[in-house]
Each structure stands twice: as structure tokens, then as C-alpha cells.
Design a protein that fits this description.
Pfam families: FIST, FIST_C. This is Small ligand-binding sensory domain FIST. The structure is a single chain. A hairpin with a 2-residue loop joins β14 and β15. This protein has two domains: 304 residues, no CATH class; 105 residues, no CATH class. It has 430 residues and is an alpha+beta fold. The protein is elongated, with a radius of gyration of 22 Å. Strands 14, 15, 16, 17, 18, 19, 20 and 21 form an eight-stranded antiparallel β-sheet that branches. Helix content is 20%, strand content 36%.
């Protein structure tokens, strides 16, 4: 196995940051355990470097002419291995050693399309692209529809990504030698990223940092963003039962407790034994805006018309820590599954022995990873500087990793808040 070379640095001058990162990458490429001929680059940079995105991309292209494709974005902060850069000007870069037919750069003017299988790809699959890494502008009014449309163009319907920083223009990198110059480069806004075929051997997972309370319930009555009944009972009555306090008799205490409550919404049925005691990856968590005392309802910040189920939950650092460790442990276990069992991580199941899919009977290791976390998380939320990354590496080991802090996280086919989204690229252990 060859690990993906990476580098990261903070410096007020973007040129110096690039030089430091390049030196680290070249140093790792000279080591026997790292890939020496990667073809794909991913770069994340903080707001301070957004104005220099074009020059930064050109500098990386000059330093690594063998890299034929680049993707990336500006974030509210960036991260790499054990370091989080939330307030400093910083850059993190990783070079991925993947077969060229196993990925595709896409953007708004070079969109992802259903394509014939490229030469050398796995012919057993019904769709070339199985999943996608997505960088998106938070101001897109039709973002939910765009995510659904993009997911429909992948065989597994799995997206993972985040919203670019909104402090300046949400700059994104989407460059490929295979595309015409006007179709690739630096973009301001929109949606871009990387699509992967099964030959990329990627797994993804999400941690929502929530502790479920009570059972999952069916939404039996609602009007727009007001939940009226759950499992045939008044929604407010169910909430009061969960909080152990009534709104009409102790309004101040009930209001304080409600500030710490969220609801996880799901639109599809799932086997009750799956994700028992935790939220499913496809669940969407949102806060409570208030209550409707007259109708006995609960007010949400968005419409729940397309949702079928609801589960109350709480979000705190204890729950976030436990769920992050859970996600990493499940992912680690999936890399060395029992022979003949499906390979699964975070709800993405890969059929054992399918052509182009990781062999469930073969032990695998992580060659590189991309992690996208909410700006509301970070090390401070986990009790110490770089605490989130330290927990992640504690379970998965000292893996090559870069990522960014986002305004919202994309997992499955929808947008999440206060979550962490992890994409790992695996290789067979020799």
C-alpha cells in the first residue's frame, strides 16, 4: 500500500505557505511508504488566501506538473492530520494516487453526466460514478434540488462534502487537463467536486454528534413546518414527555430544556434493527423554533412535508465525542471484515466480491482521507486544541488526512449542520 502524500502550513504569505506545503509533500514522496506518481490533487485554503486562488492553483500546477487534475475550495478553516487552522491563513494539500479512470472533476460548466464506462473500469457496475465529493456555495437557492440531481447521477446515490466559506466569494478549484481551459480552473460560487467510480475504493461516513432520546416515531400530522402529531399523539405532548416538564405549568424551565433539543428527520423506511441506538446517516437534524400551544404542535425551522419519521435528540460535546468514536470504530472494523460479509461504513454498503468493489474478505488500510467538519465543532468543542482530529486519529491511526471547516456538511443526499463527514480511500494490505 502507498499512502497519499500531503502537506499543510500556516503563513501570512500564500507563496510561503505553498512552498512549505510543497516541501512536505516532496519529502513524503521520497519515502518508500508514499505514492510517487499521484495524478489527482485536492487543496483547501482559508479565507485569507481566497483572493489569490488563481495564483495559488498555478503555483501548485507548476510544482506538480504530473498532477493532471485539481479540486478544492476555500473554507472557514482548514485541517490536516493533527492540526486545525480555524483563525490563521492556512493551506492543506493532498495528492491522491488513483487510477485516472476512477475519478472525474466536475463543475457547473462541466457537469457530471451519466457516461459510458471508461476503458479499464469495472464493467459489472450499472453506473460509472458511484459517489462524489462536493464543494458548494451556501447561497445557492436551489441547493437541495442540485444535490438530489447530482446524487441521481451516481450509482450509490452517495454525496459527501461541505459548503465553502461565505466570508468572501465561495471560491472553488475544478481543473483538469482533460477539459478545455474555459471549462476548468477557479470558480466563484456554484457547485463542483470529484466523482469516483468503485475503482477508487472509497468509503464514506458521517457523525452527527447527537444522542437520540426515545424511539423513532412516525409523523402522522403536520402543516408546513409545524408538527401536529407523532404516532397519533399531539406532538407537544410527546415533547413534554421527553423533557419531563410541561409548557403550561413550568414555561421557563421547559423553554430552557427545549433549547438543547433537536429532531432528526427521515424520509424513508429502514429496518428497525439498523442503526439501533443511533441516528441513521440519512437523518437530517434540525433545531426547534418553538411550540404552537393552541394546536399542540412543535415549530421547526423548515418544512417537514417530505419527511416520514422523527426522533428527538440532544447535541452536546459528550454525544459528539461518542458519535465520532463510533463512526471511526465502525469504519475501522469495516476494513477487516469477516470473510463473505458486506463491507459497510456509515450506511454505504459495498457488495462483497463485486468486481471493482473492495473484497470483503481482504484486509484493507486507509491510504488517505478527507474530513469536513462544521465550524461549530473543532478542537475547542471537543475539550482541547485539535481535539476532534486527535480523537479521529486515536481510532483510525496516523492516517494522511486533510479537510476544511464548513458552513454546512453534505452527506448522503442532503445538507447537515454540526456534523462531520469523512471520506477514506482504501487499498489492500499486502
Amino acid at each position: 500500500m502507498k499512502r497519499f502524500p500531503y502537506g499543510h502550513a500556516t503563513h501570512p504569505d500564500w507563496r510561503m505557505a505553498v512552498s512549505l506545503v510543497v516541501a512536505q509533500i516532496r519529502g513524503r514522496m521520497a519515502q518508500s511508504g508514499y505514492a510517487r506518481n499521484p495524478s489527482l490533487g485536492v487543496a483547501y485554503f482559508s479565507d485569507a488566501f481566497a483572493s489569490y486562488a488563481e495564483a495559488l492553483l498555478e503555483a501548485l500546477q507548476d510544482e506538480f506538473p504530473e498532477v493532471s487534475d485539481w479540486s478544492g475550495a476555500v473554507g472557514a478553516g482548514v485541517m490536516a492530520t493533527h492540526a486545525e487552522y480555524l483563525t490563521e491563513p492556512a493551506l492543506a494539500v493532498m495528492l491522491l494516487d488513483l487510477p485516472r479512470h476512477a475519478y472525474r472533476v466536475f463543475s457547473g460548466i462541466a457537469p457530471l453526466r451519466a457516461e459510458a464506462l471508461p476503458q479499464g473500469a469495472s464493467a459489472a457496475l450499472s453506473s460509472t460514478w458511484q459517489q462524489a465529493l462536493v464543494h458548494a456555495d451556501a447561497n445557492l437557492p436551489d441547493l437541495p434540488d442540485l444535490l438530489q440531481e447530482l446524487a441521481a447521477r451516481t450509482g450509490a446515490g452517495q454525496l459527501l462534502g461541505g459548503l465553502c466559506s461565505a466570508s468572501l466569494a465561495p471560491v472553488q478549484l475544478a481543473w483538469s487537463k482533460a477539459l478545455e481551459p474555459r471549462h476548468s480552473g477557479v470558480f466563484h460560487g456554484g457547485i463542483s467536486g470529484l466523482a469516483f467510480s468503485a475503482d477508487a475504493a472509497a468509503l464514506q461516513s458521517v457523525t452527527q454528534g447527537c444522542q437520540p432520546i426515545g424511539e423513532r416515531m412516525r409523523i402522522t400530522a403536520l402543516q408546513d413546518n409545524v408538527l401536529l402529531s407523532l404516532d397519533g399523539r399531539p406532538a407537544l405532548e410527546v415533547l413534554e414527555e421527553i423533557m419531563l416538564v410541561r409548557m403550561d405549568t413550568h414555561p421557563e424551565l421547559a423553554t430552557r430544556k427545549m433549547r438543547h433539543m433537536q429532531v432528526a428527520l427521515e424520509s424513508t423506511d429502514r429496518p428497525p434493527s439498523v442503526y439501533d441506538g443511533q441516528l441513521a446517516p440519512q437523518a437530517r437534524v434540525c433545531s426547534l423554533l418553538g411550540v404552537d400551544m393552541r394546536r399542540g404542535g412543535i415549530v421547526l425551522p423548515e418544512s417537514a412535508l417530505e419527511q416520514k419519521y422523527l426522533r428527538f435528540c440532544q447535541r452536546n460535546w459528550t454525544a459528539a465525542r461518542a458519535d465520532l468514536l463510533r463512526m471511526c470504530a465502525e469504519l475501522r472494523e469495516s476494513l477487516a471484515p469477516a470473510h463473505g460479509q458486506p463491507l459497510m461504513a456509515g450506511g454505504l454498503q459495498l457488495a462483497a466480491g463485486s468486481e471493482g468493489m473492495p473484497d470483503a474478505g481482504q484486509e484493507r488500510a486507509i491510504a488517505g482521507a478527507i474530513y469536513i467538519s462544521c465550524t461549530g465543532r473543532g478542537g475547542g468543542y471537543f475539550g482541547s486544541e485539535n481535539g476532534e482530529l486527535e480523537l479521529l486519529h486515536h481510532v483510525l491511526g496516523d492516517i494522511p488526512l486533510i479537510g476544511f471547516f464548513s458552513q454546512g456538511e453534505i452527506a448522503g443526499q442532503q445538507l447537515h449542520r454540526y456534523s462531520g463527514a469523512l471520506l477514506v480511500f482504501t487499498q489492500e494490505v499486502a
